[in-house]
Design a protein that fits this description.
Elements (H helix, E strand, L loop, with lengths): L1 H38 L19 H9 L2 H32 L5 H13 L2 H14 L6 H25 L3 H9 L4 H12 L1 H17 L2 H6 L8 H6 L11 H21 L1 H9 L6
Helix pairs in contact: 1-12, 2-12, 3-6, 3-9, 4-6, 6-9, 9-13
Length: 282
């Protein structure tokens, strides 16, 4: 009886695990699936609760690019997110080396200040950032968005890379110093290759953060040619204020999600390695 009871308990636990996994997958995947289904519908079919678009059409996708410069906004988002991510990783890697390897007074206070910056809501720094962007002559430009996005991505990347670099063996740095390597050489030639998984995971999260940012993009851009995709989607309108083209909104949402999916699939091995780095020591 005890053996049967143990087997029954294991089967019940495994079943509960798979049910929980199925619930999580449904919760996370179904909204995107529903967006795809809705983007393939038109007219009154949009308001039908069907899980399969029996009369699928690509009219919504064509309308997104026909009614506004949507391709330009995608390019803008790619440029801004890529530049903001690259700048964040470059600055964060340098800061992480200093904060994790160099002993100086106030290092803990600097780390705490970096972390506290990421806790401020965007609306709290919006007015100050607006004055800075306008004073530098970067209003309504992609450079202004890159500069403003750094306040979102740089604290996060610095904190994560600092924690990761602390786990790297000190012996590697000591051996490089004995061989006469400079701090820049140690960072570029030794630490950065070892930090490739962490850079990939952190860079992806920073890219997603910059790609989906809305408030700064809405405030610091004026012309349609300088907008990013979140603003472009938010400004999609119908013939009247009461007729929002949900099919176009869903089609645009699917389009802007595809680059993120492709990026995750491309970097999935490094992302998993970066997220699990330091979990096991030996």
């Amino acid at each position: 009886m005890s053996v049967l009871r143990v087997r029954t308990t294991r089967i019940a636990a495994r079943l509960a695990f798979y049910l929980l996994l199925a619930a999580i997958l449904f919760y996370t995947v179904f909204p995107f699936y529903w967006a795809i289904v809705s983007s393939l519908k038109s007219g009154s079919a949009l308001f039908e609760a069907g899980l399969i678009p029996w009369k699928a059409t690509l009219e919504n996708y064509a309308a997104v690019f026909r009614d506004q410069p949507f391709a330009r906004t995608i390019v803008n988002s790619l440029v801004v997110a890529a530049l903001a991510t690259a700048a964040s990783l470059l600055l964060a890697a340098s800061a992480a080396y200093a904060l994790s390897r160099i002993r100086f007074r106030g290092r803990a206070a600097v780390l705490l200040a970096i972390l506290s910056v990421s806790m401020f809501p965007q609306i709290a720094v919006l007015s100050g950032m607006f004055e800075l962007v306008r004073a530098l002559g970067l209003y309504n430009s992609l450079a202004g968005l890159v500069l403003s996005y750094l306040i979102l991505t740089l604290p996060f990347t610095t904190w994560v890379l600092t924690a990761f670099m602390r786990e790297l063996p000190v012996e590697l740095e000591e051996a490089a110093i004995v061989d006469g390597a400079s701090p820049a050489r140690i960072l570029v030639g030794i630490f950065l290759p070892l930090m490739a998984p962490a850079l990939a995971a952190t860079g992806l999260l920073a890219f997603i953060l910059a790609w989906n940012e809305f408030l700064f993009a809405l405030t610091f851009t004026l012309s349609p040619e300088q907008r990013t995709v979140p603003v472009a989607i938010a400004l999609i309108s119908g013939a009247s204020a009461y007729e929002l083209p949900w099919g176009q909104v869903m089609a645009a949402s699917v389009i802007v999600t595809l680059p993120l999916i492709a990026l995750v699939l491309l970097l999935q091995r490094r992302i998993v390695a970066g997220l699990t780095a330091g979990a096991v020591k030996g």
